[in-house]
Amino acid sequence: MPSPVMATIIPLEQPPRRRKTAALDTLAALVADDMAAVNQLIIQRMESRVAMIPQLAGHLIAAGGKRMRPVLTLAAARLCGYQGQRHIKLASCVEFIHTATLLHDDVVDDSTMRRGSPSANALFGNEASVLVGDFLFSRAFEMMVEDGSIDVLRILSHASAVIAEGEVLQLTTQGDSTTSEQAYLEVVRAKTAELFAAACRIGAVVAGRPSSEEEALRTFGLNLGIAFQIVDDILDYTADQENLGKTVGDDFREGKVTLPVILAIHRGSEAERAFWKRTLDDSEQRDGDLAHAQDLLRRHNTLRDALERAQHYACIARDALGLFGEHPVKQALLDIVNFTVEREF
Q: How high is the pLDDT of residue 6?
């Protein structure tokens, strides 16, 4: 029998944290019935005779989150006029893939917090987290095969492979203060944006829409994902910790070289570059180093400029929806783009 924690998996309506969540609330309301079906399917397909599997996976899924990726699949299908039920299973696949990557990420990063609660690896151990992540990946592929579309299988399996490549690529840039902006963006595209793109694209595929609409939704998702991750990296240095749902400064402590840091390194003095090398490359961090890093980012206006980069990709995402006529879902997706670059968590 599943653990009691399963009863709280994916609450459909979560209390808003800021007024800026209105865009998320609006889009969620438009696909509320579909999302309820996704929630139920996720609970069903996490079942296993091995009790730890639903217990561990349920811990992470029940912790909440914005759930943007499955919602994007549902919204894209609705925008394309789809009337069937296939998008329910595929949105569940997307959430399983995302959850699996989170489990693996937290092990790789040795994270202790996720969405404001202890991470699964902190509670259950690294070995269990990796193996349950593998289970969720496998379950997602079972559901893709059940859907029966070779196009869907191709899109989501490719996304899964690219995400894994992105994780490995991030390992090669971690602790390397010479990382270029191009290399950083390659990591972002692979690790984050690819699943956003696939989640949106399959909405057009299940609806049988022309390739132009499929490509438009792929472009929308890809650029939304890039903007989302850049803002995430900004928030790691600027957010209120309670709202962020993780420890502020985690990227710095883990030696991750993100866009605000890359810009600061390029603009800084030799002494400042030596600071970044000591703290990121050599992992020699002292009390006060995070505060000094934040001061350097502000001094060189890199947080502002990184946000401008995010807004650039947000504009591309908005333009991609120009192919579609007026529709409540289209407006909600445009509002999600605005939320992405204005959010505080």
A: 29
| pLDDT tens, residue by residue, 137-196 | 999 999 999 999 999 999 999 999 999 999 999 999 999 999 999 999 999 999 999 999
- For the record, the structure tokens of 231 come out as 């803002």
Triad 117, 128, 174: Cα angle to 5°: 70
- Gap between the Cα atoms of 99 and 322, Å rounded: 31
How many C-beta neighbours within 10 Å does residue 4 have?
Answer: 9
Look up tokens 């962020």; give the residue: 244
pLDDT tens digits, 29-70: 999 999 999 999 999 999 999 999 999 998 888 776 778 999
End-to-end CA distance of the chain: 35
pTM for this predicted structure: 0.91
> Residue 99 pairs with which residues in a beta bridge?
none
The CATH class of the 18-342 domain is mainly alpha
Helix (H) or strand (E) holding 237: helix 211-238
258: its two tokens: 């993100």
CB 343 within 8 A of CB 231: yes
> Within 10 A of 331 (CB to CB), how many other CB atoms are there?
15
Q: Which of 107, 97, 102, 103 is nearest to 45 (CA)?
A: 97
Look up residue 192 and give its DSSP letter. Answer: I
* Phi, psi (degrees; rounded to nearest 5) at 81: 80, 20
CB 109 within 8 A of CB 174: no
Q: Rounded CA gap, 183 and 267, in Å?
A: 18
Euclidean distance between CA atoms 122 and 119, whole angstroms: 5
The pLDDT score that the predictor gives to residue 13 is 37
- Write the DSSP string, 112-178: -EETTEE-HHHHH-HHHHHHHHHHHHHHHHHHHHHH--HHHHHHHHHHHHHHHHHHHHHHHHTT-TT
Check if the beta carbon of residue 182 is closer than 8 Å to that of residue 220.
no
CB proximity list for 261: less than 8 A, separation 6 or greater:
177, 252, 276, 280, 293, 297, 302
- Inter-axis angle of helices 194-206 and 211-238, to 10 degrees? 150
